[in-house]
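ok trying again, last paste got cut off:
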Amino acid sequence: MAANISAIVLAIIFVLMSVLGGRLFCGKICPYGLLQDLLNKIPFPKKIRSFKGDIHLRHLKYILLVLMLVVNLFGYSTAPTNETNSFDAGKTIWWTVVTLISIVISRPACKYLCPVGLLLGWSNLFPFGQYKVNQDSCTQCGACLKVCPMDIKPYQSANHFECIQCGKCKKVCPSQAITTRF
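nice, full thing came through this time. structure:
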């Protein structure tokens, strides 16, 4: 009974944080997002901003969300039934590969895999903490796009559902056209 109450309280807190902060969690609090940002600062000869199929690969997190819901609702298990640790080894290899890719691509887990970020992203549409772009002072110089870890164009859609609200676009804007409204 206490576990159910704890789960309900955590769900309520998650919903409130989502409505009030959107993907602010992703940009400021998520430890795996921070790890990806740090790994992406490692010098590498060729950093990849975008590639053919990037936009299609971003739909993978929708599929993962549906799979997670099906597994949780219907109780399917992907874990092996015997006592081997092959499932844990598979997860370790998977996350090691994603972590290493973070050196070359900015926040690949956030862009392509994270269903939590997907759910939080829809909260960017609520008016709390949204970014506002003053189109009169924006020169569309692209400085914000160059620093955006999610490779979106803040000057076109500042509250894109993929925006993690890291604030880097606001910091580099030479005309200070990007502001936060509450």
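cool. The chain has a mean pLDDT of 83. The radius of gyration is 19 Å.
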